[in-house]
Specification:
The chain is an alpha+beta fold and 792 residues long. The protein has a domain of 284 residues: Distorted Sandwich (Beta-galactosidase, Chain A, domain 5). Helices cover 24% and strands 21% of the residues. It has 19 helices and 38 strands. The strands form 11 sheets. A 9-stranded antiparallel beta sheet has the order 6-7-8-9-18-13-12-11-16. A hairpin with a 2-residue loop joins strand 6 and strand 7. 58% of the residues are buried. Keywords: Glycosidase, Hydrolase, Signal.
Length: 792
């Protein structure tokens, strides 16, 4: 996923290098305890490409308490530090409370805390550079001292000898610092620090020390999300001995227990307050006989909301940790996996990463700050934010409909609808976090998320209100060339950048509106958007077979190079090779245009086998994980390996999936070949390992690939279980010989969502040679609009 501003390019050498999982036939590692937490490794993806963080968070938690190895973007490459932590680094700048998991752009990193020892006058106030850490408050560390597991992170800071531990609840994080015996203990709270930092990012901030020792504060930042406000409340297990509030703009310290000008909304009870754009707090605790615990709650509403969130989850470090790890055991335990040890670790970690977002944004009392920057009240649901929808509509949200209780998806849909109604533009979110719209990426992909939920039977939201919101988003002319799209049937490149990609993505979204409208009996809307679903044809050059950008006069733009990748060009984070396959609602129609099955298979092979050695994509950060022109590190390619099934050669899909899994995933810090993008890369692996994938969300079908697990048992939202059982799984048997559903042969190459939700067993029998007869007939192929307008 790209940012709306240019980031420093990161080379492709690591991403393009093949990374192999140990063989499927490796000796089985039978779990000695049914605890899924032991199989999760939060370090996976913390290498330069994955952009995951290793710190502590509850499932979908508002707080992601994690170390930042570098939050000074002018000094180091921002892109590799999008989540704050990059595994190759050797110093930690501090521990902040908010992070994205796998985003292609950075922000957050709020309220950075760092312990220090020694005399108060010697506490350093600036982070210093990573290559000269002694000049600042950052400290060296060794990976050997780190522990990372769901809900817990720990590391020893080598320069001070402080053992730092982190855990988190839904709306709070808890630090625990064990200082060397006899050392003077301090914490530095830096309100200046921020991921993707630059001068002037902090618009305003404040600190407020209360008589009971509670420290509250806030900051407003301009970054990826403009005018983002966040508040905190902090309490300590030991009393403050002294403190200093500093505004580094003024270069003057305010020290002592006196009350200057009060913060807005606060009373004269303040012991100390400070407003400014570059605030820091030095907090002095003297020598301590026990570890120092620091409870920190966040709120997007106000400081009182943060205090209330602090009270909503009482308990010390161990209590919060135990509660959060129990939540993780329950969430991860809904999918029980038996697979070779490396694959099991990759899969449980992928499931873990899939459950970090969309994150909770409303306070414990239901209040939240919406897209209009006003405070609203969520009634009967938890408001969630962090929607990377261009990425996550594909597999992440479909996965949540299976592995989470129904209320999770219902909360998502209600949050999307509330955001639309509170939006100044009156449309559904595009890429939202902290309730704020970033306008990043293309499409109106909240639409398929809502339609997919409704068509799967989720009814915990107002369907009419939802359909109205979907239509409003699809007809908002000022957005992304939609006015031209509605007028011409395509987006013209001389009016709007990335026009070819926008045309086909809009057409898919339109198809999901038609599907939901039809199911609701709104035939007028269904017919209107079913017609728009065919607009993909207007941007395909039938003569060459490529998706291309048209100009307003109807001609295709020239010159044309199907391998060219540039931001602001005809395509979004890709080129003609990837985007010419994006017609998920009508692959049969596309294949007919391309000349039939044989020509399609030949072109798919050409894509995977393309020699890219003479191409340089280093200017495009998200183009990683290349297999020819297949780019697994970015989402437009994610369905392509399954398209052999639509062309009647499912054994070729099985081959390609083996190639992708072996080269793009492994249980190591560099184990993700591209940004995890809020769980999409991980959700792809979970689905694929189970043997099926939602190529077309909204069709209620999953395309069968091949499994990578011996056995998996999924507990569904309604309490039923669906089991995947694989016979003869090994490196020497990579092909599906036969498939059975509930003991009966399954000849078609897809299963329905209803069949999964009914419970039962999907059994694969693997063999050494391809079965070239299974799933090849026209009637056995998955849904396409041209051949099956009304799927089950």
């Amino acid at each position: 996923m790209k940012s709306p501003v240019a980031l420093t390019a990161f080379g492709l050498a690591l991403a393009a290098s093949p990374v192999a999982l140990p063989p499927l036939g490796a000796a089985p590692d039978t779990p000695s305890a049914p605890d899924p937490l032991r199989y999760v490794d939060p370090m996976i993806g913390t290498g330069p490409e994955g952009h995951t963080f290793p710190g502590a968070s509850a499932p979908f938690g508002m707080v992601q308490l994690s170390p930042d190895t570098d939050a000074t973007c002018q000094i180091r490459d921002c892109y590799a530090h999008a989540a704050g932590y990059s595994y190759p680094d050797t110093t930690i700048q501090g521990f902040s409370h908010t992070h994205f998991s796998g985003a292609g752009h950075s922000d957050l990193g709020d309220f950075l805390v760092m312990p220090a020892i020694g005399p108060a006058r010697a506490v350093k106030l600036d982070p210093g550079r990573a290559d000269t850490p002694d000049e600042g408050y950052r400290q060296r560390f060794s990976h050997a001292s780190e522990v990372a597991t769901p809900g817990y992170y720990a590391v020893t800071l080598a320069d001070s000898g402080v053992r730092a531990e982190m855990t988190a609840g839904t709306r709070l994080g808890v630090h625990r610092y064990t200082f060397p015996k006899g050392a003077e203990a301090h914490l530095l709270l830096d309100l200046r620090a921020s991921l993707y930092d630059y001068p002037g990012k902090v618009l305003w901030s404040g600190l407020h020390l209360h008589p009971d020792g509670t420290l509250t504060g806030f900051r407003e930042t301009r970054g990826w999300a403009p005018g983002r406000k966040l508040f905190f409340a902090m309490r300590f297990s030991a009393p403050l001995k002294d403190h200093a509030f500093l505004d580094r703009d003024e270069h003057v310290a305010y020290k002592g227990f006196r009350a200057p000008q009060a913060l807005p909304g606060q009373g004269p009870d303040a012991l100390a307050e400070k407003l400014g754009k570059a605030l820091e707090a030095r907090l002095d605790f003297g020598t301590l006989d026990a570890p120092l615990e620091v409870r920190v709650a966040l709120s997007g509403v106000d400081e009182q909301g943060a205090i209330a969130n602090l009270a909503a989850q009482p308990g010390n470090f161990d209590t919060v940790r135990a509660d959060t790890q129990a939540q993780w055991r329950a969430a991860l335990g809904r999918l029980q996996i038996d697979a070779p040890a490396p694959m099991r670790t990759s899969l449980y970690t992928a499931l873990y990463h899939s459950l970090l977002a969309p994150s909770v944004w409303s306070d414990a009392d239901g209040r939240y700050r919406g897209p209009d920057d006003q405070v609203h009240q969520a009634s009967g649901f938890t408001f969630r934010s962090t929607f990377s929808l261009w990425d996550t509509f594909r597999a992440e949200h479909p996965l949540l409909t299976l592995v989470q209780p129904e209320e999770t998806t219902t909360d998502v849909v209600k949050s999307l609808l509330a955001s639309r109604e509170e939006s100044p533009w009156g449309i559904l979110p595009v890429w939202q976090f902290a309730g704020r719209e970033t306008w990043t990426m293309i499409g109106y992909h909240a639409v398929p998320v809502i339609a997919d939920a409704y068509l799967k039977g989720f009814r915990g939201f107002d369907a009419k209100r939802a359909l109205d919101a979907m239509v409003a988003s699809a007809t908002y002319a000022p957005y992304g060339g939609l006015g031209e799209y509605m007028r011409r049937g395509y987006v013209p490149i001389d009016k709007e950048p990335e026009a070819a990609s926008k045309t086909v993505e809009y057409a898919y979204d339109d198809w999901t509106i038609a599907r939901m409208a039809q199911a609701m009996g709104r035939t007028d809307i269904a017919q209107r958007f079913a017609a728009r679903a065919g607009n993909w044809r207007h941007s395909f050059d039938a003569q060459s077979g490529w998706l291309r950008a048209r100009k307003s006069d109807g001609s295709f733009r020239t010159p044309f190079d199907p391998t060219a990748i540039n931001y602001g060009s005809d395509y979004t984070e890709g080129n003609a090779w990837q985007y010419s396959w994006f017609v998920p609602q009508d692959q049969a129609g596309l294949f007919a245009m391309l000349g039939g099955d044989r020509k399609v298979v030949k072109r798919l092979d050409a894509m995977f086998d393309f020699d890219t050695s003479r191409l340089d994509y280093s200017h495009a950060e998200d183009i990683s994980g290349l297999i020819g022109q297949y780019i697994h590190g970015n989402e437009p390619s994610h369905h392509v390996a399954y398209l052999y099934v639509y062309a009647g050669e499912p054994w070729r899909t099985q081959e390609r999936l083996g190639q992708i899994v072996a080269s793009q995933y492994k249980p190591t810090p560099d184990g993700l070949a591209g940004n995890d993008d809020l769980g999409q890369m991980s959700a792809w692996l979970v689905f694929t390992a189970l043997g099926f994938y939602p190529v077309t969300p909204g069709s209620n079908q999953y395309v069968i690939g091949r499994p990578f697990v011996r056995h998996a048992r999924l507990t569904l939202p309604g309490g039923k279980t669906f089991t995947v059982d694989t016979q003869n799984l090994s490196d020497k048997t990579p092909y599906v010989g036969k498939v059975e559903l509930n003991g009966r042969p399954l000849d078609r190459a897809w299963i329905t969502d209803a069949e999964v939700r009914a419970g039962g067993t999907l059994r694969f029998t693997m063999q050494a040679r391809p079965n070239t007869r299974w799933g090849t007939g026209a009637a056995t192929r998955p849904y396409s609009l041209s051949t099956a307008p009304q799927p089950d």
